[in-house]
Design goal:
- By secondary structure, this protein is an alpha/beta fold.
- It has one domain (5-185): Pyruvate-ferredoxin Oxidoreductase, domain 3, CATH 3.40.920.10.
- Helix content is 38%, strand content 24%.
- The protein contains eight helices and six strands.
- It has helices spanning 17-30, 78-83, 104-107, 117-124, 133-139, 146-155, 162-172, 178-189, and strands at residues 5-12, 34-40, 49-57, 70-75, 88-97, 127-131.
- Strands 2-3-1-4-5-6 form a six-stranded mixed sheet.
- The longest helix has 14 residues, at 17-30.
């Protein structure tokens, strides 16, 4: 890879956004690239918005990605994709998990859920990939591997050997979940 790639990974606390950022960093290091990461997890433990930004390439000077500077936006939830849409380049790719997580404010009636969410996503993103990551993860028996399904889909956009991605999973995922996560990665990478 001869240029710097900017990736923003966004989601709701508990979806594995931060682990996904760590996986991406490990992949870059294993592939011999320079990498920098920044993250904001604020109210993550309370189901709040989470973002991890990763820059990787031959030489990276700063972890910060400017507004409109993200090449690939990976969103683990539909509304989070819309919340962070301003980060994506005009010709960037938005990879969005087809999952909706309604916050407590919507459940209690204090806030309203957006209408026609899929249409809004289509209108917002020129290059949209809607990925059924949660459905795929549930079919595998564990909804928590949806993040690695999204990482497998991301890997198809990168010129990095899939075995490097698998090695990063083996190194970072808890041993009892490695096989499941390797299966999740392969399912989406080969989709």
């Amino acid at each position: 890879m001869n240029k710097v790639i900017n990736i923003s990974i966004v989601g709701v606390g508990g979806q594995g956004t931060l682990l996904s950022g760590e996986l991406l960093c490990r992949v870059a290091l294993l592939a011999g690239m320079d990498v920098k990461k920044s993250e904001v997890h604020g109210m993550a433990q309370r189901g709040g918005s989470v973002i991890s930004q990763v820059k990787l390439g031959p030489k990276v000077y700063s972890p910060l990605i400017p507004e409109g500077g993200t090449d690939i936006l990976v969103s683990f939830e539909k509304v989070e994709a819309l919340r962070w849409a301003h980060l994506l380049k005009k010709d960037g790719v938005a990879m969005v998990n087809a999952q909706e997580i309604r916050p407590i404010t919507v459940s209690t009636g204090a806030a309203q859920w957006p209408d026609e969410l899929d249409k809004r996503l289509g209108d917002t993103f020129e290059n949209l990939e809607l990925i059924p990551a949660l459905d795929m993860a549930q079919e595998m028996g564990n909804a928590k591997c949806a993040n690695v399904i999204m990482i497998g889909a991301l890997a198809k956009h990168m010129d990095i050997d899939p075995e490097i991605w698998r090695q990063a999973i083996r190194e970072l995922v808890k041993p009892k979940f490695v096989d499941l996560n390797l299966k999740a990665f392969d399912a989406s990478y080969n989709l």
